[in-house]
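Progress note, project year one: complex with zinc ion.
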Amino acid sequence: MATAQTVYCGRCRKAVHYHYDPVNHWTQLLLTVVTLGLWLPIWLCVAVSPTKLCNECGGPIWAEM
Ligand SMILES: [Zn+2]
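Model obtained:
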């Protein structure tokens, strides 16, 4: 049973279905190593709150108003 949740997309100017951008942890690990650990907080943020992406235009949905 798929949940049919929608959020408002500012680009499409309507309620749209969304999906989450899968986090590539290998890329995040590589960035963390390259930046000597400076990327770690960003990695954690991305892992805890994945970005919602609009199914219609593919853009990120930041506000849920
Ligand atoms: Zn959209």
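Strands lie at 6-9, 14-20, 52-54, 60-61.
Helices lie at 25-34, 40-48.
No further modelling is planned for this target in the current period.
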